[in-house]
Amino acid sequence: MQTHLLSSTFSDAYGRKVILIAGWVIAIPVPFLLMWAPSWNWILLANLFLGISQGLTWSTTVIMKIDLAGSQNRGTAMGINEFAGYFAVGLAALATGWIATNYGLRPQPFYLGVVFVVAGLLLSVLVVKETKGHATQEATLSSQTLQILPSQKDIFWQTTWRNPNLSAISQAGLVNNLNDGMAWGLFPLVFATAGMSFTQIGTLAAIYPGVWGICQLFTGALSDRIGRKWLIVVGMWVQAVAIALIIIYNSFAWFMCAAILLGIGTAMVYPTLLAAIGDVVNPAWRASTVGVYRLWRDMGYAIGALLSGVIADVLVLSQ
Predict the structure, then answer these.
(1) Are 181 and 302 a contacting pair, CB within 8 Å?
(2) What is the pTM of this model?
(3) Which secondary structure element, helix H or strand E, spans residue 110, and what is its range?
(4) CATH superfamily of 2-315
C-alpha cells in the first residue's frame, strides 16, 4: 500500500515511464526466487519484491491511462484497465494450475512468470510512451487555478480530510475494499457454517469476482455518460443489500444472488472512484492524489481482513 503512494509521488516528480520500468525491473527476481526457494524466507522475500513491483506498475498504468483518456472517457479507461488486470490474474491462475497439475509445482509454473516479466519490461521500454506531458498540458487548460505544486504532506491531507470531494472518494474506496476483504475472509466461513459443500463455496467465491470483473467493462463507460456520483451511491447500496442477503438467508440460491449483487455493486464503484479522482484534482498533481487515494482504498483490505478475524472469533464461525 505504501508503494502506491511512493510510485504516484515519484510519477509527478520524475515521470510515469521511469517508474513503470523500475517496477518491472524489481519484478525480475520474483519467479527465480520462487523456483529455487530453499526456505520460507525466500518465499517471503519474493512476495516483498512482488508487492513493490505491483504497487509501482499497477499504480503507474492507472495514472497513465487517466492522463491519456481525458475527462470524457476516463471511466471507460478505468473500467477496461481494472477488467484487464483482474481477468489476467484469473487466466494466470488457471494456466499455472494446469501446468502444476500436469508438470509439477516447481519450477514449471513459474516459467510463465519469467515470460510475463520479460514481456512487461520490453513493452515498457520499447513501446510505452511518457504521459506526464499530457497531464501538464491538461493542467494549463484546466478551469482550476494552476498554483504552485503543493507539498506531498499537503496533498496527503487534502486527499484524506481537507478537500470534501477527495476525502469522500477516499472513504468510499476504503469501505468498498473493506467489503471486499470481508467477502474473501469471512463469507467462506459463513457459507461453510450454513452447510454449503466445498464445490458450492468455490462456486460462490468465483461468482463474485467474475461478475465484478466483467461488469467493469460496462460500469466504467456508464459513468462517463451519466456521471460518477449516483453510480457510486447506488453501487454502495447494492453492496449493502448483498451483504444483508447473506446475513438473512442460508440457502445456496440466495447466496448466489448475493454474490452476483456484490459483484455488480463493486463494479459500479471501483472504476468510477478512480475516474472521479481524476475529475476532481488538478492534473498537475493528479498522480500524487491517486496514490493517496489508493493507499486508503487498499487499506480497506487490511481492515476487512482484521474485522473478518475478529467477527469469526466472536461468532465462533470457525468451529
Answers:
(1) yes
(2) 0.82
(3) none
(4) MFS general substrate transporter like domains (1.20.1250.20)
